[in-house]
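Blinded run. Sample ID left blank on purpose so nobody reads anything into the name before looking at the predicted structure. Input follows.
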Amino acid sequence: MICPTCKHHMFVVEYQKIELDYCGNCQGVWFDVGELELMLGSVGIGETKSVLDSLLQSPPAPTNEKKRKCPICRRTMKKANIGGTDHVIIDTCSREDGVWFDGGEVDHLVKFLSGKSPEKSGTAKVFSFIKEVFQAK
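Blinded prediction complete.
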């Protein structure tokens, strides 16, 4: 798969039997449809489907960030705002093939969805994984 940001080849990273496409150049990560829910569910963050559905169905977020093409269908992806205090913008496929996170953005989503610090919740495992593999800040 080709990275929608920097056009380098991505490689597969496996976590809890979930295969994620990761770009070693820009540290972006692609989640095929359903993979993000599986990863978050594996660490006990429930009820993610309604949040993710709202991201996919939300109007495009206003941003100057360059539009990207879905690595699956090659259509232009929509920018969606995760919310929270950081206002992180992610890219979502209009055909719902998946979601693209720039380097460091996955941990913002996990923090937003968990609503807790990783030390006090069951999400410490996924935060550790994200920081190690996705080089989150």
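Unblinding after everyone has recorded impressions. Residues 11-133 form one domain.
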